[in-house]
Amino acid sequence: MRLFALIIGCGSFISVASGAAAQSGGAATLAGADTTNDPVQLLVNRLDLERYKNTIKGLAQFGDRRQGTKRNRDAVDWIEAQLKQYGCQNVERITYQYNPPPATQRGGRGRGPVTSPNGHGFAGNGPGGSRIFSDMREHGANNDSLAQPDPKIRAIDMEPTTPGERQEVICMKVGTKYPNEMYIIGGHMDGIGWGQAVNDDASGSAIVMELARIFSMPDVRTERSIRFALWNNEETGLNGAHAYVDQRAAMQGKEIPAGSGKYPEPKWLAMIQHDMMMVDHGPPTPDGKLSPEQRPGADINIEFASTSKFADEAMKLAFFWRAANEKYATDYPAAVGPHMSNTDSDPFKDLVPALSLRENERGSQIGGNWDPTHHQPTDVLTTFTDKDFMLGLTSAQTTLGAIGRLVGATVGK
Ligand SMILES: [Zn+2]
Fold this sequence. Notes:
Layout: H1 2-10, H2 19-23, H3 39-44, H4 49-60, H5 70-86, E1 89-98, H6 103-106, H7 151-156, E2 164-173, E3 178-188, H8 198-215, E4 220-221, E5 224-231, H9 239-248, E6 267-274, E7 300-303, H10 311-328, E8 334-337, E9 354-358, H11 362-366, H12 386-406, E10 410-411
Parallel strand pairs: 3-5, 3-6, 6-9, 7-8
Antiparallel strand pairs: 1-2, 2-5, 4-10, 7-9
Helix pairs in contact: 4-8, 5-8, 8-12, 10-12
The structure holds zinc ion.
């Protein structure tokens, strides 16, 4: 209860992520905003379900895009070509090494067990310190090629991973007034499980790419910068996001060369991750399969980490995202939860306020097998209907609305 009293006490959701944004004219106020002349609404209107689906299909052509394979590198090339075609600024590649110990020493899986103690002394039997109130548990990742019934998809996913150099693509919308500050929006382009990694995580990657496309349109200006990041190696332990933090944290806010007005790595204001954005079918069927329909109460789950260094700021930012959902989203509501876990926002959470957007709560719901397609051969295009894709587009509307306000977006010549 104490947390909620604190929020009401704040009075409004003004620019909680950044004191600087609050001082710069309150671009982030949502309540009572002029709807008819709202430039952010114009930008949200540029999102389109068919375009979003086509971007997902573009990623799905590379199968599960497992890191350390040609299909993964081809997908990185394709993403880079798309971002350049959109006119996104400063398209770059982050290069890093991924050399894990042999699988026998790792116990076979890149992820820890579902039942992990949270180390903070309160009950939690799911990821992120969550509690799962059922006997259902998510299954481990599929490693059996023959579990994929489609021979074409099986063939695309055949090459095994090898250690070595990895790359991931980033680009930027450069702010006109404060090019030295930015928000980071991410999704992970790699997947596993012998499917097409459609939901995990073409659905989140396509949100990042669609927002990069819209913010890069020639008539769009923003006061602050936005980083668009398509992380690699999420499935092996967030290695791509960690590489970015390792290489770029110390570069923040530096003008290079001095006096140029150019900031290769603006100061981070917050990081928002999009991971698994389409399936909210409720609990699985009694035999553990995906319930056939999107559930009537389907929603987007905005999560922050209550145990992170920036927990209070991240919580306020989460409610700001929820308010943006109420203002800009067309189809599905959003809910806020405290157990952000198991995705690329994690390496950022003790450096800046960090959020993840998901189809379900990662801990209590996905941990309780609410998405039986997770890391399975069923994570393919043919599994999903427009109601599923629309949950992803609704998340795109939510983040575009929130971020558009935070960066002071305007539309015009
Ligand atoms: Zn994922």
